[in-house]
Structure formats: C-alpha cells, structure tokens
Amino acid sequence: MRFRSLLLAGLVAPALNACAGPMAGSGPSAARGPGGAAITAGDLRRDLFFLASDSMRGRRGATDDELRASMWLAAQAQAMGLQPAGDDGTFFQFFPVRRFRMSETSTVTLGGRTLRLWEDAVVMAPVDARVDAPVMSGDAPLAAGAASDRAVVARLRPPATQTPRWVSLWSWRQTSGAVNAQRTALTPASPSALVFVADSVGLLAFENLIKSAREGRYLLDTLGVNPRANIPPVPVILVRPEVVAGLDLSTARLTADLRTESFIYPSVNVVARVPGTDPALRGEHVLFSGHQDHDGVNRPVNGDSIWNGADDNATVSVALLAIGRAFAREPGRRSALFVWHGSEERGLLGSYWYARTPTIPRSGIVAVLNADMIGRNSPDSAALLGVTAPHRNSQALVNMALAANPGFALDSTWDAPTHPEGWYFRSDHLPYARVGIPAIFFTTLLHADYHTPEDEPERIDIAKLERMTRWMYATGWSVANAAARPALDPQPAAPNR
C-alpha cells in the first residue's frame, strides 16, 4: 500500500528524523522582533508556489497527498534548523481518522423507480436502515404519530431563518437549514423515513450536497467521538423534483436498503520547535498554528480538478516556515512551537488531536497564534478573531497582537457571535481555546475563490502575505519575551456553537 510505504518513509527517513468598524494597533512603530529580516517575500513566494502547485494535488487530508506535503514541510523545518517536536524524536504526530459513509451498495426505490444514489437522491447523513413503507404527503402539518409506519414525502420549504446570499456556500447552507428545520418539524409524526423534494435553491446546492454526503463524516473516535452521534433516527433523503413527477402518493411505496461502512486513514501533524534562551522560561511555548491540508483532487470546475488551496491554507503553511526562520536566527526567551495541523478541512481534526494529546506538556503552551487564509482581499485590510466577547479568552494576548499590528484596518464584525459565517468556529485555534489556552486567529477573510479550483498561487498578494507573516511573528516575539505569560480572562467562557 502507498499509505504504508509513505508512513514508513516518513518515520525512518534520516532527513526527517533527528471591529463594528475599522480599528488599528500601534502602527508601523510596533516592535517587530530582531529576526524579522529572515521573513522575505522571495522565500514566501517560492514556498507558496511549490506547496500550492498542481504537483501537490491539493493536499487532501488523510490521503497520501497530505503525507507528501507533510514530509516536505518537515524537511524545510529541519533545513532551517528547527528541532523535531513530534513523536519519537521525529517531526510527525500521526493520528487515526475514521471515515464513516454510506456504502455504494445502498439502494433506494420510490414508487417502483430505482433512484440513482448521488445523482437522483442524496442520503443526507450516513445511516443503517431498511425501509419498506407506503408514502404519504408531509406538505401539510402532521399530528404526532400520524406518519407511523409510513414514509413522508414533502417539498422543501425555505427555513424561517434564511442564510444571506453573500455567505459562503450559500445554497448548501440554505438547503441544509431547510432540511433540518423540516426534519425537526416532522419527527413527532413518527415517520419511518423522510423524503424531501429539492426546491430551486436545493437544486443549486445539489452538487455540493452530493460531495459532502457521499464523502461522509471524518472523526476522531479514538478521542471518544461517537461516529453515529447527531445522526437522525430515520433516513433523510433529498431528491430532485423529477423523481416525484407524476407520483401517486396514495399507492406509492418507499423501499430502501441503506448500509454504512467505515475506514481508518492516517493523518499527521508536523511539529517543530526552536528552544528558548532563558533556562527558566524555555519550558513555556508560544504555539504558531496553521493547517496544511485542503480539498485535493475534486470535482472539476471549468476543466480544473485540482483544488490547490493557495490561500486556504498554503499561505499560512509557508508563513510558519518564514516565522521559523526568524526564530531560528534569533530565538526568544520562551520557546517557539510550530504545528502544521493535518485534516483541518475534515473538521479541525489535527488541532483537536494536538490540543488533547500535545507532544509537550499542555501547561507549557502559553498562547496559540493561529492563522487561516492571509493572502487576499484589500492590501490594507485584515481581521483578528478572538478579540471580542464571548470569543476572547485573553485580553493580554489580544493587546499584544493589537500592539504589533503594522497598520492593517481590522474588521471586527466577523468576530461577532451573530455573524452568519461563524468564522471564529472554523479554524484551528478553536480546540485550544476550548481547553483553556489563550488563543487568537489572524485572517484576511473569505473571497470568491474560497473552496474552488481558482484558489491558485498566482492570485495571492505576496506583499500582503509578507506583512501578515511579520504581524504574526511580531506578536509571537512579544509573547516569547514578555515578563509573564498572557493571562486568561477571569472565567472565560468556553467557545461553543
């Protein structure tokens, strides 16, 4: 198997062992740190164009493409003098990922017509079920128990709370929200299955729904995560309108044989370290965080099937390399720890794994400086999340980041708990914040190429990437050399959503 050969190569290869409105900080006069000259646009461009190239095949989490990217990152870290800080004296922390999905042998028949799974019909969540039941309409309200031993067919209706059209993956979110709202409303009727007929928005979302539902769920069940948690008790199936055209609900039946299957894949965090210079403080670490994976080789768009993930998140992966060069040139009093997380796109899996099972004592992580997508949009705009309540858990860390801001106008609106994107909850700082470690999140926010094959290295603003990298470095330098570690806010709320 290629997985096994790559894992063994990685373990034994000698080269790899051993604001409601804008706000700004103190501007260009903020301390930048003595190693900042090691952060150059040339290095960032070179590394970015390699890591986000077609040859890296989009670095899909829990695949051999992600492992190839991981070995390249580890080799760069070693070449610049960073120490391995993973397991067993390596740069790697491997972890098992369980994929839980519908078996391709599953079948669905409605009104005597066999539906093509993932073409005519989408099973919204992996579930084991056998159904053979007459159907009835759910377009009108149903009393409790009214659908017992029946399958309910209903046309999808927009949810009461609609997703704004400008939100990323709008049609997918709108449709998922509609399905969940109607499922909740119809569950008291005790149906044996729910079949929803896609509306016009659902048809727009169908390709994304097929992709996500067919792929299934990725989980860390070895950390006690139940792969069957949050799965509806009855099958929920979304179908195209033509499936029910001419269907006589008074005589039709739904038969379904739905089966799940699961697999274990390896994924990996790359972990490197620059020891601090102060014997009393080098056991404390400022953790620089980013994810290395993206969406890999995926459905083609305009003939392009490689979803390169240049901004998401090769920009941060190469920024961490540049910050590593800076700390290797001039270490801080505290140690600098660099974690390139694996399988973030599968559900923040690498950061959840590291936050729960770090390779250094968790008490030795004094702050997490995470970033995700730092190379696009207006040259002078950015955002810092984890700044406002209830997301903020360390005012002291926030103050250090704001003081180091080189002059970006910061959009604080994305940090609001009511923001429809929920951007705070979608990157690798979150697992650390949830275990009580001071954490902030640097980003230049979403753009039209987000999660498309158009997220190419040629579209990255290298000058902006350099400034964002220097901002992260300067913040980390402040943390590494402060007299005291950043204090947690009194009784900070654990972020939950």
Automatic annotation (TrEMBL):
Residues 1-20 form the signal peptide. Residues 269-473 form the Peptidase M28 domain. One of its GO terms (biological process) is proteolysis. It comes from the Bacteria. Gene3D superfamilies: Zn peptidases (3.40.630.10). Keywords: Signal. GO terms for molecular function: metalloexopeptidase activity. Transmembrane segments: none annotated. This is Peptidase M28 domain-containing protein.
